[in-house]
Specification:
Number of strands: 16
Number of helices: 8
Order of helices and strands: EHEEHEHEHEHHEEHEEEEHEEEE
Shape: elongated
Radius of gyration: 22 Å
Largest sheet: 6 strands, mixed
Strand order of the largest sheet: 3-2-1-4-5-6
Strand content: 15-25%
Length: about 350
């Protein structure tokens, strides 16, 4: 892609408007309007064009705004009406099918859709927008559609409980593109709005690093790292002469272990292996080690790869078969964990 092509984001909100959402109606409008204001601000700051589509669904699925410039978006106040059942699968199918007809000429286009629902699918089989009448066929159609989407498509869903999460995963949604929200209160909806905003931030910052889509949009863990993601982020491995991996065999402070291993301790030059949930500050460097080859990747792209925003964030060391994450230590007495490794930069 030539460097002067512009980034164009197509962000869609697919909102449940079934009767059970009526106690949250005003809050849905407020949260959606906030999300649009946030998208407008970040689009300016990151110089990315963002176009917004909004679907509402109950017994049927309706597109109320299509691919409109985020800087010219109206409030959803007049457009979000509630009443009816929950045609969730039909909404997923229709929104993605119609968005796929959007022109993708001249630019680096990327599609990000958030579906928000407070209940289980119960109406798609009767919905005029559904291609099938049997629930099982609808589930299979959604799974097949998600599997066939190109790498610049991200489809995520917020569901009210574990059962909803199981159903979404059964429908083919990647597990890290499914989040649970508290559908019983306005506070829960506010928190859902924050989750969507964080995921969008990660997506837009990732775009600037060449990442076009995500199957772990709600994750700030390490399972999101894989070979394709590393290539997409444009990471190149460090020169093996520039670092060393030292096994850790006992509980010991980081500086003591570096010195004991015959090296000089430089503040910021030693990275510990992530082995428990930790808060990682914005200024901390991250390194990603490919287990098979012991190749190491680092730089701001490595942070983007993990979906880390430029602020303090909690990260979990999910088991990842291919990669290990290392975090820069700026303290001399950080305790190392036995059976991990220490990454020392020369």
């Amino acid at each position: 892609m030539s460097g002067n092509q512009n980034y164009i984001n197509h962000v869609a909100l697919v909102l449940d408007a079934s009767s059970s959402m009526s106690h949250l109606r005003n809050k849905v409008v407020e949260v959606a309007d906030q999300q649009i204001a946030y998208l407008a601000r970040r689009s300016r700051e990151l110089d990315q064009e963002t176009r917004v589509t909004v679907y509402v669904f109950a017994d049927k699925v309706e597109c109320v705004i299509y691919d409109k410039d985020v800087l010219r978006m109206p409030s959803l106040k007049e457009l979000y009406r509630v009443g009816g059942m929950t045609a969730l699968l039909a909404a997923a199918l229709k929104s993605q099918r119609e968005l796929a007809q959007t022109a993708q000429l001249y630019g680096d286009h990327s599609f990000l859709t958030f579906v928000l629902t407070d209940g289980q699918e119960n109406a798609s089989h009767r919905c005029p927008d559904a291609p099938f009448k049997k629930p099982r066929a609808l589930t299979a159609a959604v799974a097949e559609m998600i599997e066939k989407q190109d790498d610049n498509w991200t489809l995520a869903v917020l569901v009210p409980d574990q059962m909803g999460k199981r159903e979404a995963v059964n429908c083919g949604f990647p597990k890290d593109n499914v989040a649970i929200w508290d559908a019983t209160s306005t506070r829960g909806l506010e928190e859902a709005g924050q989750v969507i905003q964080q995921a969008t931030e990660k997506f837009m910052v990732g775009r600037t690093k060449g990442i076009r889509g995500s199957r772990a949009v709600f994750s700030t863990g390490t399972e999101a790292v894989n070979k394709a993601a590393i290539e997409a982020a444009g990471l190149t491995p460090l020169d093996p002469a520039g670092y060393q991996l030292i096994p850790v065999v006992r509980d010991v402070a980081i500086r003591d272990w570096v010195v004991e291993s015959g090296h000089t301790y430089r503040t910021g030059g030693a990275f510990y292996q992530l082995s428990k949930v930790e808060k990682i500050q914005a200024r901390k460097r991250i390194a990603v080690l490919e287990k098979k080859t012991d190749r190491v990747y680092t730089g701001p792209e490595a942070r983007a790869l993990l979906g880390l925003p430029d602020e303090e964030v909690r990260v979990k060391p999910d088991h990842n078969a291919e990669f290990t994450i290392f975090v820069q230590s700026t303290s001399v007495n950080r305790k190392l964990v036995p059976n991990t490794r220490l990454l020392l930069m020369h």
